Write a sequence for this structure.
């Protein structure tokens, strides 16, 4: 294409933008984009108002960025603007970097711009994640500040992107700032050699200073306007900061710190729950608790094996390989060295190489190592952090080597040589990225997998009844983001009755306000006290019950299985209800029993003689007392009304088909509910329970069956 005519810089930039748009369309249509973390799904839900009301408050995103999102949601509420805005920023950032490279070097810069889009397609457009987005936006800001012609529009654009990057994820902004520091350091060395400090301070320092003033000024302003001392947001910020200090680093083991834990009033079960991120107990897991554990926890020795592992992993990462290849091309002229004093021995056209660019080229790699050393001291570096840092390293290193590559090879890349070089680079990049760019074409989209469809169906079903709320444990919640397209907006008020027992949003003002709608405050404790709460968990059920038993003395913790939806079991946890009264007006009967699920559960069915009007909004329990030991237990049941999804009704619903039948599914009992038990069906209305006179017709006494 370029061999027939010499395209202008502007024309090459336009061709690059067209290519960029085509590749975005390819990613969206064929590579099955998805959210890269649970946090992403939660942030998108908050942004869309799916947690009950729109808010400008996010724990990680700056409130100013939330106002930007709010503007777009107000403009057209039906679209998922969280994804669209993130996509727009990714497109603008990659385009800004590519166009800057093309402006500096029409041929080599154009090839590198194309390769950058290919390398960024999967990590940015397919696995959408705000930490990586912030890293890319920040990197683009520094490229405009340091590598453009320093025109006002470039500088203002660069400053704006730096501020936006910090608003999306300040930690990512910090990491990329460390990697980009090499640009400023190289310019400082150049200014020192030329004694041109005035130009250095005005042209090279002032834009960065301006950006940092805006970044930290916006943070200070947010602390005043949003995190007002004494507000719910300020409390949550303190809580989450303490949570990060403990859980992100890792909770120390019980055996090593048993005395310290017991001094805080924590049991081994409490510590196991902390290690599993089961932290939704407002009374026990507070910011003060987290800080107290951090205070006695000893720093672990530096994990050198982690560093070794990650150096091996880095050497195989396509983003790192592409970065290293460009740097290797930059180093090739040093192979011409024939004398020890190599600055003299170099080809005259290359005598200044390195003296100008060594710092800017190699600093990103040193910064990458330094960032990993910092994180390894805390925990194994997260894949998202690895990708964000590698992307920043690639962009900074390629930007630094570009001028010398243009000087050395730019004029030689003409005609067929240019086309061949470009095609070879694209093929090489595509081969390195075949797992991300080619194989997804043959794979099923994540949103269509069995696990995703199951989650989608579950959420659609349980979000319809706002009278009952559902809680997930952290393990089962890892699949939430898979069930939805990242371009699909969740309906308003969609997640007002769905919570998770672990994660950064546990104590957020929105979660608290949604719980208060059910007259609850602590999510974990409320699972035992509310007959409107359903736990979706197979893995953490025992831990939860042990946790409760250690807090509330004298309670006999029980659970019952209410429903099963796809692969997910829905449980209710029950505790002793005080002040239960006898109801001598209404009667009930237990008349059917059988086992279920390979005899893991005993099922009991019966009926009550109350009218639908009397039962409206009430829940049902099975009350038992052993005549031998006096031990009492209570199990929650369901009304045998089924909604359109086949779920039994936890609260009696007059809009469904009327019934007087009830069903209890409880873990296998050691012996039957026969004459050794006093048994009652109990109707609960709010905080009051009424035992009905109940005939136990479960067994035929004449046959003993």
């Amino acid at each position: 294409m370029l061999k027939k005519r010499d395209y202008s810089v502007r024309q090459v930039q336009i061709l690059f933008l067209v290519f960029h748009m085509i590749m975005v369309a390819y990613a969206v249509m064929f590579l099955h984009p998805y959210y890269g973390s649970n946090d992403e799904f939660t942030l998108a839900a908050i942004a869309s108002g799916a947690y009950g009301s729109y808010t400008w408050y996010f724990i990680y995103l700056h409130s100013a960025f939330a106002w930007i999102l709010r503007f777009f949601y107000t403009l057209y509420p039906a679209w998922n603007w969280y994804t669209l805005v993130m996509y727009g920023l990714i497109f603008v950032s990659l385009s800004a970097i590519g166009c800057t490279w093309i402006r500096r070097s029409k041929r080599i810069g154009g090839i590198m711009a194309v390769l950058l889009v290919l390398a960024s397609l999967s990590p940015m457009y397919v696995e959408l994640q705000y930490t990586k987005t912030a890293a890319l936006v920040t990197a683009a800001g520094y490229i405009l500040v340091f590598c453009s012609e320093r025109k006002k529009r470039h500088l203002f654009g660069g400053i704006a992107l730096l501020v936006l990057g910090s608003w999306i994820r300040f930690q990512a902004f910090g990491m990329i700032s460390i990697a980009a520091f090499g640009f400023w350091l190289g310019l400082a060395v150049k200014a020192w050699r030329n004694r041109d400090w005035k130009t250095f301070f005005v042209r090279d320092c002032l834009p960065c200073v301006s950006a940092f003033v805006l970044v930290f000024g916006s943070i200070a302003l947010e602390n005043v306007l949003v995190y007002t001392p004494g507000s719910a947001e300020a409390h949550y910020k303190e809580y989450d900061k303490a949570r990060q200090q403990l859980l992100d680093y890792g909770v120390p083991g019980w055996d090593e710190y048993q005395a310290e834990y017991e001094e805080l009033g924590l049991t081994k079960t409490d510590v196991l729950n902390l290690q599993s991120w089961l932290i939704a107990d407002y009374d026990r897991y507070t910011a003060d608790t987290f800080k107290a554990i951090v205070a006695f926890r000893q720093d672990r020795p530096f994990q050198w094996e982690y560093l070794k592992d990650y150096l091996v992993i880095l050497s195989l990462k396509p983003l790192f390989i592409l970065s290293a290849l460009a740097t290797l091309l930059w180093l090739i002229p040093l192979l011409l060295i024939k004398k020890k004093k190599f600055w003299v021995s170099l080809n005259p056209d290359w005598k200044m190489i390195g003296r100008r660019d060594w710092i800017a080229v190699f600093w990103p790699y040193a910064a990458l190592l330094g960032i990993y050393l910092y994180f390894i001291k805390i925990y194994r570096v997260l894949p998202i952090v690895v990708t964000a840092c590698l992307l920043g390293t690639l962009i900074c290193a390629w930007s630094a080597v570009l001028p010398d590559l243009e000087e050395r090879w730019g004029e030689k890349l003409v005609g067929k040589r240019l086309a061949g070089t470009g095609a070879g680079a694209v093929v090489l990049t595509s081969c390195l990225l075949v797992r991300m760019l080619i194989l997804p074409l043959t794979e099923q989209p994540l949103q269509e997998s069995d696990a995703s469809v199951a989650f989608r169906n579950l959420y659609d079903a349980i979000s319809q009844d706002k009278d009952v709320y559902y809680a997930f444990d952290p393990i089962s919640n890892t699949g939430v983001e898979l069930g939805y397209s990242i371009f699909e907006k969740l309906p308003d008020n969609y997640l007002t009755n769905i919570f998770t027992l672990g994660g950064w949003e546990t104590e957020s003002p929105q979660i608290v306000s949604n719980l208060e709608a059910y007259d609850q405050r602590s999510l974990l404790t409320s699972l035992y006290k509310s007959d409107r709460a359903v736990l979706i968990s197979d893995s953490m059920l025992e831990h939860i019950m042990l946790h409760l038993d250690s807090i509330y003395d004298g309670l006999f913790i029980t659970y019952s299985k209410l429903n099963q939806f796809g692969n997910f079991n829905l449980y209710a946890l029950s505790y002793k209800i005080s002040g239960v009264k006898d109801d001598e007006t209404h009667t009930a009967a237990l008349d059917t029993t059988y086992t279920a699920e390979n005899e893991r559960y005993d099922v009991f069915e019966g009926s009550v003689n109350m009218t639908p009007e009397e039962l409206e909004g009430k829940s049902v329990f099975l009350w038992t007392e052993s005549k031998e030991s006096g031990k009492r237990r209570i199990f929650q049941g369901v009304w045998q009304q089924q909604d359109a999804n086949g779920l039994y009704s936890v609260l009696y619903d007059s809009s469904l088909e009327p019934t007087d039948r009830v069903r209890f599914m409880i873990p296998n009992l050691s012996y039957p509910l026969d004459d050794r038990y006093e048994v009652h069906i109990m109707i609960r209305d709010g905080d009051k329970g009424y035992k009905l006179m109940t005939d136990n017709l479960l067994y035929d006494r004449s046959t003993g069956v």
